[in-house]
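User: What would this chain look like folded?
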Amino acid sequence: MSQDNSVIIKIDNLTKHFPINRGIIVQRQVGAVQAVDQISFEIKEGETLGLVGESGCGKSTTGRTILQLHEPTSGKVYFRGKDLTTARPDEMRHMRRNMQIIFQDPYASLNPRMTVGNIISEPLEVHRIGTARERKERVQELLRLVGLNPYFVNRYPHEFSGGQRQRIGVARALALEPEFIVCDEPISALDVSIQAQVVNLLEELQDKMNLTYLFIAHDLSMVRHISDRTAVMYLGKLVELAERDELYTNPLHPYTQALLSAVPIPDPSKEKKRQRMLLKGDVPSPANPPSGCRFHTRCPIAEDICSQEVPEWREISPGHWVACHLV
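Assistant: Here's the prediction, encoded as structure tokens.
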């Protein structure tokens, strides 16, 4: 891990396990769901780091644990050199102004009993920023910024489409002028025609406000479009991290290769010639992950060492990290 001053977020062996309890009156822990297990990476100021992987691999848990919405089981999260895992509640409250999240579901993340104006101004009220008049003006300014009519402040969420609701979520995230935003699959619940509008909005806001994003998504082509670097996650572990073009043109980990081989190519002749890499079996349970490399049960090139030893997270070439014994 580098000591670069431009690094805004640094993750060091971050782990989040959710306990599995049994019993009605007296509960006891009988296991744990290993949602995130000893991952390390960093995000530089002004960049977009894409985080991809299958459903249930721990992407959203990673984003929420970085923001301390989930308390880490172990590991460290640094924001501009400050360890968030040891911060006092009053320190964490103050630092939350610089870190926000855009949630996945625009229908569930907005309170149906609150007007748009109240939803967007709530962060300002919580942190006691400005007078009532100044907050109202700020809300109208934010609505204009995300491409909505500022006179919509007295409307309720049910009066908006999915794309408009997500824009309201973006406006709420921007209310405190944060430096870092976790975009937790912000386009997966939207129609394809609306997805491009939201992604273009996020890019415009990043250029205008020098924002830093952790962009979590399933859509590999969209991640390639928006991200500067891309990280690939499998069953709670990071398996590969590289510059965007490097990862897409030279994937080293077998799981990354399988993911990219599933992305459709719009040219029928190229699609017909392409060699697909089909994975065998199902994703193991995070409550009982395989020993050694977690991917070895589905890996087409696995050897004996893969089931016995956890692969080291190492830098193969400048900026290209991978966790695989055979690379």
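The two ends are 20 Å apart (CA to CA). If you want, I can go into more detail on any region.
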